[in-house]
Amino acid sequence: MAGPWNPAAALRMARTLNLDPRTEISLAPYSSIRIGGPAEVLATVRRATDLARLAACAQSEGQFPFVLGGGSNTLILDDGIPGLTVLNLCREVVFEPQPDGVLVRTDSGMPLAQLARMTIRKGLTGLEWAVSVPGTVGGAVVGNAGAHGSDTAQHLVAAEVAMPGQEPEWLSVRELDLAYRDSALKRTAANHRVPPAPVLRAQFQLRPGDPEQSRAAAKTNLEHRRRSQPVLPSLGSTFRNPPNGFAGTLIEQAGCKNLRCGAVGVDTLHANFLVNLGTPGTGRAADVLQLMASVQVRVRNETGIWLKPEIGLAGREADRYTAALLNPSA
Length: 330
Ligand SMILES: Cc1cc2nc3c(=O)[nH]c(=O)nc-3n(C[C@H](O)[C@H](O)[C@H](O)COP(=O)(O)OP(=O)(O)OC[C@H]3O[C@@H](n4cnc5c(N)ncnc54)[C@H](O)[C@@H]3O)c2cc1C
Fold this sequence. Notes:
Cell wall formation. The chain is of the alpha+beta class and about 325 residues long. About 30% of the residues lie in helices and about 25% in strands. The chain starts with 6 loop residues before the first helix and ends with a helix. About 50% of the residues are buried. The model has no long low-confidence stretch (mean pLDDT about 95). It binds flavin-adenine dinucleotide (FAD).
């Protein structure tokens, strides 16, 4: 993540907006793997308008706030996140009937699984796959979250994004250019070495369905998760699946299932999950990074394939570590 970071300005902006910012707050409790250093400045937003105003203020001063959703796809480095981190608790959802279905307009901090359950209760179909996916709508838009043969792109119509130097704008799903765990927002951020531009709200187009069928599909998806994934804290799939293969299978074949580094280990049920085996808050991001590197080397030695990370990193040195994870010779 490129600087400069100005914590004093971040504090001032968040205070002006009555967001009660705090400094040097551990982010481990806000990460699904329960690992991570502190936010230099942490502001919590509960209304999309506040997120928009905070983003505009920060961007006008050349600052790029890091929006943290469920922290279920982000390894927060041990020295924490410099500058402004925004914890997104904006959760308003509006259902707008349309001639051909219902337009669901949701704040980006809404947990995706909760939104999916809400839509099923309303008799709508389309988000049954999402009942088992942690994280927020914002994180799902940025990373095109998906499961059970579907993904965010299937029913997303548009997302409202606060781009630097512009009024918030609704970008169509086409403009967002979602791909496998990827989006234009994610790519632009990576190219400029800044966090993704804040997603404020999203719209999904859903159809009326058979509630019995939707409930049954959701139940099947949840049961599949319980059978195939660990309950210990993790960040989900650590590595992207390579073309025509599964990262988990390659990791298992390379004999990594017993690997461990500090309090972090390769999960015995699903080898693409690295789990925090210690008490919450005891693991270190450095252990996760070291374990990821060991897995990559073993898999490459066994198969010739260099696994690419699916999780993102946040922190001062995130770019350097990401480059090393992407490129064996970096
Ligand atoms: C047990 C487990 C199972 C999982 N299973 C799946 C699965 O089946 N399918 C799948 O796709 N993923 C899965 N994941 C990964 C994760 O749930 C998804 O990637 C999820 O969409 C991340 O959302 P989040 O809110 O937690 O994002 P975070 O980790 O908080 O953020 C991820 C990135 O998105 C950015 N971001 C988040 N919100 C916003 C916003 N409002 N505006 C701008 N940028 C934002 C962050 O800055 C960061 O760069 C799993 C994770 C776990 C722990």
